[in-house]
């Protein structure tokens, strides 16, 4: 968490961490928050009352799950803006639409539910200030699955590499689209970086203010 006595080198920057399930967003967000002296805002997982039902009966609970996450993420997004002291967010509100689209594509969400979700998201987006930058952790679907298996969350045992590949393709489309509006720093994340190394690279690229930057070791 940030300290009132220690100013972040990025000022009150709002940095969103994006990436596949299991990519390592939470670990990086925590480390970056400590290193850059920014508050960290975590994805609602432990207290997500739909999570187990969603993984057990995806088609039945997909719409409820996405609406729940959209509501929680909007609340968190606005809180970061209202505090006006910056922060690091573990998964952005924009990514929820990737999951909703993937569920629709796989026949796990009805098209009418998807359209309702998209329209609600668009209405909410009218009230949202954009993050300063999004850090996209580019991880292959295969490595994502290995990390999911390694952390062994019981409810995630049914996630397949085929699902992750579809999700990855939609992430690629998302990155290309969102980088027209919000600076995106794309990080090759199949191998983890030292926090000092990634923090320095993010600070450098954030300061450069380009709208799509790719960094590598």
At the first level of CATH, the class is Alpha Beta
Distance between the termini: 27 Å
- Total E-strand runs: 6
CATH architecture: 3-Layer(aba) Sandwich
In terms of DSSP E residues, the strand content is 5-15%
Largest sheet: 6 strands, parallel
Determine Rg (CA atoms, Å): 17 Å
SSE string:
EHEHHEHHEHHEHE
What is the number of helical segments per DSSP (H or I, 4+ residues)?
Answer: 8
Mean pLDDT: 88
Content-based structural category = alpha/beta
Structure commentary:
The protein is an alpha/beta fold. The protein has one domain: 3-Layer(aba) Sandwich (Rossmann fold), CATH 3.40.50. Strands 2-3-1-4-5-6 form a six-stranded parallel sheet, with helices on both faces.
Question: Summed up, what is this model?
Answer:
The chain contains 8 helices and 6 strands, in the order βαβααβααβααβαβ. With 217 residues, it is of the alpha/beta class.
Tell me the layout of helices and strands.
Elements: E1 14-19, H1 25-36, E2 40-41, H2 51-56, H3 58-83, E3 87-90, H4 96-105, H5 111-125, E4 133-138, H6 141-151, H7 161-178, E5 184-188, H8 195-208, E6 212-215
Tags for this model:
217 residues; alpha/beta; globular; Rossmann fold; 6-stranded parallel beta sheet
């Amino acid at each position: 968490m940030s300290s009132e006595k220690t100013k972040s080198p990025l000022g009150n920057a709002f940095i969103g961490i994006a990436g596949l399930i299991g990519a390592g967003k939470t670990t990086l967000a925590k480390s970056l928050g400590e290193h850059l002296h920014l508050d960290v805002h975590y994805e609602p997982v432990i207290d997500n009352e739909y999570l187990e039902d969603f993984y057990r009966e995806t088609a039945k609970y997909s719409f409820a799950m996405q609406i729940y996450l959209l509501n929680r993420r909007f609340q968190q997004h606005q809180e970061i803006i209202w505090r006006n002291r910056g922060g690091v967010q573990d998964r952005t509100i924009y990514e929820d639409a990737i999951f909703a689209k993937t569920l629709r594509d796989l026949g796990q969400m009805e098209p009418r539910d998807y359209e309702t979700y998209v329209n609600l998201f668009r209405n909410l987006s009218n009230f949202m200030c954009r993050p300063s930058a999004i850090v996209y952790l580019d991880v292959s679907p295969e490595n994502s699955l290995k990390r999911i298996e390694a952390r062994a969350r019981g409810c995630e045992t049914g996630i397949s590499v085929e699902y992750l590949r579809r999700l990855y393709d939609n992430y690629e489309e998302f990155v290309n689209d969102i980088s027209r509006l919000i600076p995106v720093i794309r990080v090759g994340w199949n191998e983890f970086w030292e926090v000092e190394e990634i923090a320095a690279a993010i600070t450098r690229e954030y300061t450069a203010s380009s709208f799509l930057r790719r960094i590598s070791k």
